[in-house]
Each structure stands twice: as C-alpha cells, then as structure tokens.
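Reading a protein record of the kind used here takes little practice once its layout is understood. An example of such a record is reproduced below.
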Amino acid sequence: MSKTILGALALVAIAGVASADVIMEDNLQFAGHIFTDVHGNTHSQQRGTPITIYSNTSSAANAATSSLNLNTRWGDTLNMTGTGVLDAFSLTVFNSASGNTGVINTYDVDVRFYRISDSSFIGGFIGQINFGISALSPGYYSVVTFTGLSGFGINLDTANILATQARVAHTGGSIRMGVASLSPVTIGSSPVSFYKDDPSSPPAGFYVFSGGATPADLGYRVDVIPAPGAFALLGLGGLVATRRRR
C-alpha cells in the first residue's frame, strides 16, 4: 500500500460556516500515547521534533464524536504559528462505547492537508497503527504520533490549513469509531467548529458541539522542519531578543 497521497479532490465548503450541532460523547477515557512510523512500527518516544507549530495533544479530552459509517472523514482548521516540511503528526483515534462492544486492534488512517485559502490539496499520507495486545477498548481514545514524515516532502506552506483523517481499514470488532476533542489548544489556535464528512448524514461541512458552547478542537499536533529562510529568521529573532535583554 502506498504511504503517500499523491492527489485528492478539493473539499467542498472548506471555508463555510458551522452547519449544525452534532451529538457529543463524553466520559471517554485516555488509553495512552503511541509513537509509530507509517508502517505500524512503534517507538518508545517521539523522534525528531524540530519545531511544534500547532498542538493540543497535551490537553485533556473535553468531548468526542463518532459514526457508524466507517468511511467518515473528520478534520479541523489549524491556525499554526509557522510553516515548514511536515516531520511528525499527532491525531486521535476514539473507539465509541455507544452501541459498540468491539475493540480496535489495528487501524489504518488516511491523513490529508488542505489550504484554507483556496481549498487546494497540499499532501498526505497513510499510516498504520497497532494498538498492541490490550487493543483500544470501547469508551477509550489514544493519541497517536506518526514520526519520520519529512521524507514525504509534505510542505505545509501556509499557516492556515484543514487537517483531515479517515479510517482506511481496521481489525477488531469495533463498529463505531471517531475522534476526540482536546481542549485547550496550547500552540496555535482553532475555531470551535470541526469538519465532518459522513456519507450517511450529509452534507459535508463544519459542525459544532452544543451550539458552540463546547469547543470542538480535534486532537492534533504538527511538527515541521522550517525552510532555511525560516531558520535564519528564527536565529535573527533570538539575536534581537538577546540584544534587548542586554
């Protein structure tokens, strides 16, 4: 299976406003953090994180959402603090306990990135996750970090993107899966809405929890290798800061 996404159709209504409320699930439990490459080989810790330009994965879960349609694509608008070549990317996988008693043993996810400005496709990859012997039980979510992504050359050339994810395949008896919302965002920012494209309940677009009272910040972290010019600017900024302290 190819691990990179070579092309994709632009999303519909990427710049649209929130469409409607969706069912919010709570009382979910954290099953831990997994570090893996796209082939499902786990690591003991994250490898190489030059600069984090967006993150909320260290925050607690405040909600979750899921669907019986396993082809649902989830996503969120990420207002990042910089740009660069993607080096590591974190997301959440939620196994819902709503009408579901099956576990998730392995999970393949299709990750794609789009520019907010014109809905154009930037790039993406397909990653494999192995939840191990204990599996991911109903009512639990995991934060999964894919490392070693710089070789794919996914250049996040704008600070405002839509990151999306969709299940490609899985093993285990789960019939209802989704994503977790983690709040607050600690690096960067995101609106209270999130993206959902559920073929069983169209239309695709942006949705909110509880009229927007509960932030829908899907769990993501973006680590990049900045372009050489960006490194120079960072160095200059540090030099100016040093001179000011003097």
Observations:
- The two ends are 56 Å apart (CA to CA).
- The helical segments are 228-245.
